[in-house]
Specification:
This protein has 443 residues and is α+β, with helices and mostly antiparallel strands. It has two domains: 221 residues, 3-Layer(aba) Sandwich (D-Maltodextrin-Binding Protein, domain 2), CATH 3.40.190.10; 190 residues, Periplasmic binding protein-like II (D-Maltodextrin-Binding Protein, domain 2), CATH 3.40.190. Helices cover 43% and strands 15% of the residues. The strands form four sheets. A seven-stranded mixed sheet has the order 1-2-5-4-6-15-9. It holds the Pfam family SBP_bac_1.
Length: 443
């Protein structure tokens, strides 16, 4: 059950203790009260009475603190709008949201990612924002075109990026200095990257592997496919065949034979995607794959200085990718107010300054410039510098993944693991994956 907090104006004077209790409970946090903040000239709703919006997102205590602060700012400017907020960790988030959807009581404003965007749009769970974008009630003119496109399903704007991120290699700078191995560089081919990882393993006498095993990482596979003119998806089907996927798995088999990656048991820990289990954080590899917006969180989990470069291959394989989206519940009683809140979270300079890069680079280019000097956290600065360095080299954005993407991701991890521990031959496992993935996409 969630922990219920009273409105903010009745909270006690010890916020540190409240944060500690929240962390100890380890459950979704529910808070109600006047949160706040909108553009000076924004209209919140056509209604005259008070409006309470429910908001739900996943993340940690830091994201909660910053998001609640921004919502307070909105309410200060729009006193009749208050918020009932709930947040939790990523594990179980969509299960809870599915339960709410089944009961027709989805929060007014929710955070979703590309794994569920298309499915929620097609099931008519989230509000179509197209008309509001057309008349600029929801003003996306300051967002990169690719970032806007990535929130579009079948030609309709269904969500707005809460931040922009890119897939990257996170590496341990201090370890590489100690081993006297150069840092990985942007634009390395996949073969060069694996060769670099071999050097790390050799230099450490096998104490540390060079890189995580990326065979089950859909981000890496997607960019590898795009670097060859392919795609992860073509419409509602996989965008690649058996032979391409076999080539991908064989690339990682060669890496394992060369001891560029750690043992299978350690790799399976990292496959969960949990930041605290990232092998670069636990010290078991010199490098891992992660989203750029995760760099500050990963840095907080280790005392070693972390750096970041893009995944191997041409930068043009990447695109302006939403780290996550803000979407409105189709059944909200206050669509205009929810739209205005999304507008504020996305395009307001003060809001952008408060949020920093907690959800990635701010979606709005103007807000990025406005908030640039306010970012003091070194890891956030490095993440921002990485994003800005590749901004002019990004390729065109694909359509958001089709319904079934979450299942495909799970199948890819399972297939990679079965090959890694030799439960199945590469061709047999790959053929089975292709059949199961296409079935999941067709369901």
């Amino acid at each position: 059950m969630p922990v219920v907090r009273p409105p903010f104006d009745r909270l006690g004077a010890d916020p540190g203790r409240r944060r500690l209790l929240t962390a100890l409970v380890g459950a979704p946090l529910l808070a109600s009260g006047g949160l706040a903040g909108c553009s000076d000239d924004a209209a919140t709703s056509t209604q005259d009475g008070p409006v309470e919006l429910s908001v739900f997102w996943w993340g940690g205590p830091r994201r909660a603190t910053l998001t609640e602060k921004v919502l307070r700012l909105y309410s200060e400017r729009n006193p009749r709008v208050t918020f009932r907020v709930t947040w939790q960790g990523a594990d179980g988030y969509y299960e809870r949201l599915a339960t709410q959807a089944a009961g027709g009581n989805v929060p007014d404003l929710v955070q979703i990612d590309d794994a569920m965007l298309t499915e929620y749009a097609q099931r008519q769970i989230i509000l179509d924002l197209t008309d509001r974008v057309a008349d600029h009630r929801l003003d996306l003119r300051g967002l990169p075109e690719g970032l806007i496109r990535y929130g579009t399903v079948e030609g309709r704007t269904m969500a707005v990026a809460g931040g922009q991120t890119h897939a990257g290699v996170v590496f341990n700078r201090e370890l590489l200095r100690e081993l006297q191995v150069p840092e990985p560089r942007a634009g390395m081919s996949w073969a060069e990257y694996i060769s670099w990882a071999e050097q790390v393993t050799e230099a450490s006498d096998g104490q540390v592997a060079g890189t995580m095993d990326g065979s089950g990482d859909y981000r890496a596979l997607w960019l590898w496919l795009r670097s060859q003119g392919g795609e992860l998806y073509r419409g509602k089907q996989l965008g690649f065949g058996v032979e391409q996927l076999i080539a991908w798995f064989e690339l990682w088999q060669r890496a394992r034979r060369a001891r560029a990656t750690p043992g299978a048991a350690l790799v399976e820990q990292a496959d969960s995607g949990e930041p605290s289990r990232q092998l670069v954080v636990t010290g078991l590899t010199a490098a891992s794959f992660a989203w750029s917006h995760q760099l500050p969180e990963l840095q907080r989990l280790t005392g070693a200085e972390l750096g970041m470069v893009g995944l191997p291959g041409p930068t043009g394989a990447q695109w302006a990718r939403a780290s996550m989206f803000w979407a409105a519940f189709r059944g909200t009683r206050h669509p205009d107010t929810v739209t205005d809140v999304i507008n504020f979270l996305t395009t307001n300079g003060e809001a952008g300054t408060v949020l920093g890069h907690e959800r990635g680079l701010n979606a709005s280019l103007a807000v990025r410039r406005y908030a640039e000097g306010s970012i003091t956290d070194p890891a956030q600065q490095r993440a921002a510098a990485f994003g800005e360095a590749i901004a002019d080299q990004l390729g065109p954005a694909p359509a958001p993944p089709p319904k079934g993407h979450a299942k495909v991701r799970t199948l890819l991890v399972a297939t990679a693991e079965s090959i890694r521990v030799k439960r199945a031959g590469t061709r047999a496992a790959t053929s089975r994956f292709i059949a199961q993935a296409n079935a999941a996409l067709a369901a």
